Each structure stands twice: as structure tokens, then as C-alpha cells.
Amino acid sequence: PLFSPGHLRKLGLTRKTRKRRDFKEDENPEEKAQRHKEQELKPLYKELLYTIAHKMGKPSSTEVFTDSQLHQYIQESFTMTESEHSSLTERVQSTEPPVYCLMATVKEAKEILGKDISGFSDPYCMLTIMEDEKESRTRRSRAKPSKSIVKEAVSNDKIYQSDIKKQTLNPIWNQTFIIEFEDIAGASFHLEMWDKDEEVSLTQKLEEITSNFSSLKRMIKEAKKEKGTDDFLGKVVIKLQDLHCTEDNWYNLEPRTETYPDRGQCHLNLKFIHKARDGTLSAGRSAYINYCGILQQFVQAYISKQQSSAAWKGALCGEAQTLLEFYATQNDLSPFLQDLAKWVAYSKLYQSLEVDSSVLFQQLTSVEYHWHQQELPYQQKQELGDSLHGFLQYGLCLVAKYRDIFPPTPSATPKLHTLLRILVQICKTQAFQKLNPAQFELHDEVSDAIQTGTQEWFTIKKGLHQPMTKDLSEIVSALSRLIGEVQEDIKHNKVAWNRVFVSAVQVDVFTVVYERLDSLIAKEVRETLSRIEGQMEQALANSLFPVYLSLQAIQKDKAFLQKRLALLLLTNFQEGFREALPYWLNQAFSTTQDRVERAVQVDQLQPLQSGAVPIKHSSSAVDLVACIQPVCQLWEQLSWPDPEEAFMLMVKLTEDVCKIVVNYCHTLKERVRVLSENSDHGRAINMLCVVVNDLEHLRLVLTRLPTQLNWAGLRDRTRTVIGESQFQNTLPSQLQQAQGVLGREIRSALDTLGKKLNTDIETHVRNMSTRRRIPSKSTEDAADPLMRYLERELHYMNENLVQENFNSLLTPLWNNSVKILYQVASQHPQQGGLMVFCQRLLYTLQCLEQCFLAEGNGLPSNTLHSDEYKALKAHLTHNSLTSWQLVEKFLERKIWEQNVNSSEKYGAVTLLASYSRSDQRLRVEVLNAVNLLPMDSNGLSDPFVQLCLEPNHTFPVVEPRCTRIKSCDLNPLFEEAFEFLVSLSQCQAPGACLVVTVLDHDTLMTDDFEGEAFLALKAIPGVAGERKGDGLSSQPDAVAAQIRLPLMHPKPNEDTILTLLESRRGERDAQAYVKKRRQREKQSQEGIQP
């Protein structure tokens, strides 16, 4: 049973229930309905017909209904046929009419006239109803205005007089008079207010005069008046047809003449009632009982007529409100009884129809308000008590079944909240406390109902989830389903129902339910685990895992318990699943490994997404991360409580993840090999890029693994049982080994990728020298295939390799490209086309440098400009120059050697040189030579100086000049001047210099070589500086400078430029220049050992 006898005693329900005239339970429904209609509905119907036939006054609503409309409404509401309606109407018409009455309550008045000497009055009221004949007769017989209309027009037994209120201008009466009348048509209600005038002694009058001289005028007027005549204060006249069936208003007191028009106001309550109402309509029933029945029928009719499924919120149609108002007024039902009737009717309907709880709450509030205002009759008190008790019991029944009746939805939980508030309000009402003397704690009763309901709910759910067979897996599955239901119920209690119960009745339903279900579930889990002990296998362990997860989730919810009375039975439930733990780990590893292998098998090794936000790795890398995630989640799901066992569990999980990653590397390499067999060279390179990205992505995943698995939290938990060294030597070392494997695989893939690219680069470079003569293609066209290839490949790799690996690939690729260029340049066999080929290679090198530099986004300059690069660039630069450019380079180098040489072991020559821009003349004066080598057998020489402007292609028409020969002199003095007619632009041309050669004159043999010096023309005064206009300057000529030049001897066969010029057999000028320089080398003493 839902409630024990003790509970019933608390509710006051042990009183004997009144005998009810119920009929047999097995009665035919149609007969029962017909009997209900005859005994219950028809008497009420006749009451309503009688009410319509004898209605008085206007209803309070603005909508007015005719009698036929009201008849039609009640006929539909009471489901009466036309014949039944006609028959009942005839019976009502044959009944005795009631006595029509106006119940007039004179409440108070304010600001009336003061008629006495004291300035106050002694007011009283006279009330009556005057009908048409009396009023017209009085009006005709009255020749002049009379003071008392009421007294003269109506007999004394029809006049009602109130009490006299002494000396006041704001009298309060609160007296009720019932005035009968015959017909409302033409009748009017009259109220006259008078000041009572009583005879007083002369002494008292004199005392009043002496105390208040201001009232002297009033005294004189009083003296003229007849003794004992009352003074008129005002009147209120209202036609009965203008009244509503109930009125409660302030009315102005009107004068008989225009004298004193402002006479104050009177507060009246007027209500039309019946007396001697026919008792045969509903024999033996009080008006209150009839009102309850009529109200209930109207509500049922209204709800059944509504198309909406929403709960009824207290609304009724206009006809129903009008009829209820007429019936309550005619039978003089107080507002208290009306609200009581509504409470009784609505609380009964709530148990059978969809009635909104707020309607009950509103009526309960009204009943409580009236309880403090007036007393109820004994019978209604008993009915109210029974109703409150019955609804409280019914409400607790609903609370026990709150899961089914008020599901956790936004529409249902507010209904539960309102119901609980109603129960609270019932217990708070004075009516309940007076009518139920027994101690009653709603908080405890609600808690008991919740516990009882939870036990019943669990029993039902357990029966629904009974295993179909005795198979252990089926038993575990049944337990899993049951715990799933419990988990969901706890969640709803926490999220939805708890705030409802706490806010309404201060009951923490979550705690009550959690503690009850904890003990029930713990018992089921213990019994099931004991049955499977020692029989564990993989399939059974798999079916146990959902049970474990549900219990884990339930245990986490204990943090929300407000108070814990005892130790929860599910605490440390994990120990019962220790036998299944290895099976769970094995299942997670094998499942993940299989998924990874399948992911690789379908991977086409293409980037997942390109565009603004590229994804550079392939599908299998994403799948692998998704596959590893459940292994990491397993750690959180298990939340193993024992620290030492938790550490071993973490070691096993980390080992499994690393093993899966390493296996993925091997599987991916095999996948590349398979796909590369039928792919072209470019496709193979692209796949290698994707593989590198996949491995790099995995390396990042492994880097985040300690955070994902919360190693820091585990370290804090295990600090007391696991040493720091043991912790560091176990988990991080596992991770480092796996990352090491990934790093090696990445480097290996990058090496393979670099080799494939280097092969293509070498092929493109060698294709530049396919012709024996100068190819028809320009340098740019010849290098274009290589550059387009590199641009395409590097652009692809930049987009499809992560930045770190792209940079790792660029450095060896650059070094290998430089090496290939050097090898090809060095191995070129076609001497004739070497210059053009080197020009191409130099252009290619420059393009490669810009490509790898990538506007600062590629390799840094210090990485690009290696020693190999510098050597290659110098080699290509020289080999790319024309013969004239090589001669210029040769002379520039000689000028540099001259400038850095300070030794005069071969002697020196002194010049005086200047350039005149005005007449474009170069003037050179050879002053002397010193410390010349003795070239003749006599230990002396016959020196002379030769002056030559070089290079020859710059000064093609300038002839060499020579000084006179100085015989037998090692320090000759020449002092000879020479002028050369040359332009400034010639003097400033690359390599332009004055070659000073000192020779020893021999008559019979070739002149001996004493030494040579190279003077840059730019160093001569007048040459340096900017040219203006046509080169002529208005500036004064520069002052000649004296220049001392040490003589030099060339080193034989050391100059690479000459060697390069020498290889160009087909160029006569170049060969002639080389021949002249080789002759000087033969004459040189630089290579002779002393």
C-alpha cells in the first residue's frame, strides 16, 4: 500500500466515511449514465431553468445573453434532448415563483451635512422599494414638496430604518435589509438619510451657545423649526432595472432642491435574491451543493468542447459565468461558499481531467483569504476538511509516481512544481491546521513517497529487464540495461526534478533517490559478478564494459549529493571488475590495430585538403589519430582508483599506443611501395611528400600524448608509491623510442625524396649541353625546363610538406644541386661551347639561388652561400665571360697585384701622369727607373721603357710608345714625356690600364725582360670622377701626380684566365694575347730558384 495506517492517521483519514448511495460496480454503463442523469443532472437542470425564468438584474459581464441563448447552452452542457428540455421546462413553469427581494446593505457614508449646533449630525437611513402605482399616486397627491417622500408614499411595514449614529459626519452602519417587491419593472429603490432631532433642556442649549458663539446663526434657525422635526440630509434613488444582480458602489446623496447640492456619499451593497424558492426542484439539496454540481458540469462541458489537448486553466464561456452568477446571487451564496465550491469541484476534476494546477492554487488562495474573513457552516467545514485531506493524499500518490506523470520535459515539470506548491499551501492554510489537529510534516511525507515510488519503479524496471536465458552474457546484458535505466533516472533527478522539489518543498530528491538506488544497484552488481567469477572470457568481458561505464558515471554523480548519511555501497566497485581489465585492454589494442591497417589499405596517399586552410597529411593519418583516441579515452573511462595499479595501466596503454604508431610506419611504407609500382615518377614524389607529412603528424600526436593521458595528474597520484626515477625511466622512455622511430623514418623518406629530385635535376642540367656548337636556344630558354620543374616541385612540396620537413628537404637538395652543377661544368668536353654552357649554368645557379631563397621564406643566405657555391660561382663566372671580358678580368687582377705589391726586388719605375679632360689627352712622363736587374755580361743593362694602353679592344688605334735607350745603367734617368689622345670613357673602361714594361736592349738577340708594372687609368688625376656632357669639362686640368711603380715578374702557368683563353682556339685575338703573355712568363724570373 502507498500509505501506512500511521500516515492515514496523520492525514485525518481514519474518520468514518459517510455512507454513499453508490450503485453496484457491475451495473451497465448506459444504465448508470441514465441513472446519473435522472438523479443528478435533471434536478440541476430544473434549478437553472428556474434561475433563468426568475432572473433579476444585469450580469457583471459586458456580454448579455437572451433566455433562449441560455436555454440552448444548458441543453448542450447537460446533453438534454429536445423532449427532455420541453418536459422539464413545463414542470418548472408550473412551480411557484419565488419572492423577489433586494438585499440592501448600508455600509457607511462620508462627508454628510452637519445639521446640529455642534456641526455634526445624528444620521439614520430609511429604505424602501416604490413600485409604479405607489410612486405615481404619491406624485399626483403631493401639491407641494414634502420633506419625507418615503414616509408618505409607503406604509410603515414596508419602510426599513437603520440605527442612529450619534454626532458624526462619516457614519458606519454595516446593516443589511431584505426588501421584498413584486415586479422589477417600474420599481425603484429609495434611501433617505435624516438627522435625528431630539428635545434638549434650555440649560444645555445655553451651554452650547456660550461654548460656541459661531453657531449662533444655526441656533436661531433651530429655534424657528418645530420641535422634534428631523432634518433631511440627502437621498439615493435607483431604478431596479438599472441594477446588476450584485452591486457594491458609492452613491451621491442627492438634495430635494438645489440647496446644498454637495451632501456627501453613501456606500451600498445591493443584491437581488429569492425568498421562498420552490423546494421541489432539487428536493433535499442545498443551494451550495447544487452550485457545486452545476459548476462541475459546466467545466466538463467546456473541456470536452475544446479541440486543444492543453490543460484547462479556469476559463468558462460567457453563458456559464452568467448562469453561475445569477444562481449564486439568487440563492445568496457568499463569495466564500462560491470559492469553496470551486475548490471542491476543481480538485475533483483534477483527478480525472486535464486541469491546470494553477487553477487549484488560485482557488486555494481564495479559500484561505475568506477563512480569515468569515465563519463556514459546520457541514461546509467538514466538506472542506475532507477535500483538503483527499487532495493531499491524491497529491502524494502523484508524487510517488512523478517519473511517469511528470516526465522531465519543459511542459511537465512546471505542473509538478505547481502541484507541490498546492500541497505546501494546503498544509499552510489555517483551514487545514484547524481541521487536522494531528502532526503532519509534508517534507517527511514527500520523502517517504519518493522512496516508496523509487522502490516500486526499480522493481518494475528489474522485471522488464529480466534475462531471457541463464547464459552469462545474457545476464550481464540484462544488468547493463537495468543500470542504464538507473543512470538515466539519476540524471533526470539531478537535472530536471531536483530543482522542482527543492524550490517547492525543500526536498533534495536527487539525494533521496541516489542513496536508494545505490543500495539497490550495488546488490544486483554483487550478485551478477559472483555468478561469473572464474569464468571470464573476451566476449563476457566485452559485455561487462558498458556496465562498468554506467557505474562509473553513476559514481561521479555522488559529488552532487548534499548530505551523505552513510557510506555508499557502490564505493570502490571497480575491484569487482579486476578480472575483466586485461581483456578490455587487449580488445582496445586489437580493435585499434585492425582499424589502422584497414585505414592504410584504402589510403591513396593524397593530401586531404588544399586551399586556404590545407590539410597536408592523408586520410590514414587522420584515421590513426581517431583510432588512438579510444585508447586514450579508455584511461579516463576506467578512472582506476588504486594508484599503483593505475600506473601499470598507464604503462600498458602508452606501450600499446607506441606499438600502434610503429606498426603504422611499417604498413605505410609497404603501401607506398605497392602504389609506386604502377605510378610515374612525379606521382611517386608526391606520395613521398604525403608520407613525410603523415609521419610528422604522428610525431605531433605523440608529443601531445602526455597531456592527453594526463601524466602530470598521474604523477601526483602515484608520488607516494612510484619513485621519480622509475616514473621517468618508464613512460617518457617509451615515448622517446617511438618518436625516434618516427624521426628515422621521416629522414629516410626525405633522403629518398631528395635522391629522386636530384636525379631529375641532373637530367635537366645535362640536357643544356646536347649540341656541339652554340645552341639555337637562348640561355633563358635552355634553363627554363629545369626552373619550371623545380618551381612546380618545390611549390607542391611547400604546400604539401609541413614547414619543418620542407626546410629539412631544402638544405640537402640545394647542396646536391650545387654539386651537380659543378660536376657537369667540370666534365663538359666540348671546349668550343663551354662559354655558352657555363653562361647557362651560371644563369641556372642564379635562378636556383632565388628559388631556394624564396624572398626570405626559404633557406637563409648563409646556408646558400657555402664554399662549394662560391667556388662554383667563380668557376662559372670566368667560363661565362667573353675573351675581351676575360682580358679585362686579367688586367684588373694585375692591377690588384700591382697595388698590393710593395717589393722592389726587380726594381721600380717612376712616372708623372695626368689626364686633361679639356683636350682628352693622357700625358705620361717617364722620370726614371731604379735598381734594375743586370741583364748583360758586364753586370749592367741597356734599359728602355715601353708604354702601352690595354686592353687592346678598348684602345685599338693607340700605338705603344718607347723611351730612349740608356746604355750601361741600372738606375737610368729618362725624363721623357708622352701624350695619348684617348677619351675619358676609354680611360674609365673596365680593365683600362697603362702597362709599363722595362726591357734591356740587345742588338743581336731579343730584348731581355727587366719587369713590368700596371697602372690603372682610373688612378691617374683627371680620370676619376663623373663625366659631364660629352666628357669635356670646364674645370681646370688636374695636377700631374708622381707615381712610383715596383716592377713585377709574372708567375708561369698559374693564371687560370690565361688557361681559359688558351682553350678558345678559334679566337685569334685571344690566342695572340695569350701568346704574348706566355712569352712574358717564359722571360720571367719569378719561377727560378735562387
UniProtKB/TrEMBL annotation:
Biased composition (Basic residues): 7-21
Signal peptide region: none
Main location: cytoplasm
Region (Disordered): 1-39, 1067-1090
SUPFAM superfamilies hit by this protein: C2 domain (Calcium/lipid-binding domain, CaLB)
MHD1 domain: residues covered: 545-668
Subcellular location: Cytoplasm; Late endosome; Recycling endosome
SMART domains assigned: C2 (SM00239)
Metal-binding found in the keyword field: no
Residue stretches spanning the membrane: none
Domain C2 intervals: 82-227, 905-1030
This protein's UniProt keywords: Cytoplasm, Endosome, Exocytosis
One Pfam family cited in the UniProt record for this chain: MUN
Transcription is among the record's keywords: no
GO CC entries: exocytic vesicle; late endosome; recycling endosome
Compositional bias per record (Basic and acidic residues), positions renumbered to this chain: 22-39
Stated family: Belongs to the unc-13 family.
Name of the protein in its database record: Unc-13 homolog D
Organism of provenance: Cyclopterus lumpus (Lumpsucker)
